[in-house]
Amino acid sequence: MLPLQDLNPRRRMPVFTYTLIIINVIVFIWELSLAPGQLDRMFMDLAAVPASISHAPFSLAAFIAIIRSMFFHGGFDHIIGNMLYLWLFGDNVEDRLGGVCYLILYFVSGFAAAFAQVLISPESTVPMIGASGAIAGVLGSYFILFPGVRVRGIIPLGRVSQWVEWPAWLVLGFWFALQVVDGFASLGADTSYGGGVAFAAHVGGFVAGIVLTWLLTALVPQPGPEVHRASLYQRAARQQR
């Protein structure tokens, strides 16, 4: 299923989600201005390379490289897919957790994803690029916070696409299961975008998002279920006017 809409109103504008999307798009436009050879060298010089990270995992250079990697993308399909998922699921997670906790979730999940991939392929010299790991953390958080929300999307059936509506736990659970299965199938391959898909990063980011959501909601006071539900109904009513 390709999700296109979730029936989940929010209370306020997702400033940080939109900002992350804008930054990713700006960086991608800059990438398009580079010649193929320049782009490859830029990825090698600026992105996170597992072989380098594994030799100095807690260095400042590794930290900065992983941050930069979260804003690089390898093609139109790569960035469109990532930004679609961030736009679709990030707004409600930001709305529920608040801006600061949301950014913590996003970037810590990105780091967890990068280190999961390094753990699987410690000697790989293929750069890891893309926001997929961080966004997987957002998906893991959504899975915990809004499991019953209805998500609409399409299932391609040859030349015909069928419009379906599934609960979020099924959509995201199926996505996660697919990453796990494909991850086992790709063990031993030199993976990243351009050399394959970093499934271990997706799994690591998703699990990190789940764990971080439990921690953040335990540490930061959350609205009670009735209060939260009432605020969402009020928001939905305003949107329908």
Describe this structure as you would to a colleague.
With 241 residues, this protein is mostly helical. It has a single domain (2-240), classed as Rhomboid-like (Rhomboid-like fold, Up-down Bundle), CATH 1.20.1540. 66% of the residues lie in helices and 9% in strands. The chain contains ten helices and three strands. Strands 1-2-3 form a three-stranded antiparallel β-sheet. The two termini are 31 Å apart.
Describe the structure using short key phrases.
241 residues, mainly alpha, Rhomboid-like fold, three-stranded antiparallel beta sheet
Task: Summarize the SSE layout with pairings.
Elements: E1 2-6, H1 15-32, H2 36-46, H3 50-55, H4 60-69, H5 76-97, H6 99-120, H7 132-145, E2 150-157, E3 160-167, H8 168-185, H9 199-219, H10 225-240
Antiparallel strand pairs: 1-2, 2-3
Helix pairs in contact: 1-5, 5-6, 5-7, 6-7, 6-9, 7-8, 7-9, 8-9
Overall 3D geometry? globular
Query: What number is the mean pLDDT?
Result: 87
* CATH domain class: Mainly Alpha
Portion of residues in helices?
Answer: 55-70%
Please tell me the total number of domains: 1
How many helices?
A: 10
Q: Could you give me the name of the CATH homologous superfamily?
A: Rhomboid-like
Main β-sheet, in a few words?
3 strands, antiparallel
CATH topology: Rhomboid-like fold
Identify low-pLDDT runs: 190-195
* CATH architectural arrangement: Up-down Bundle
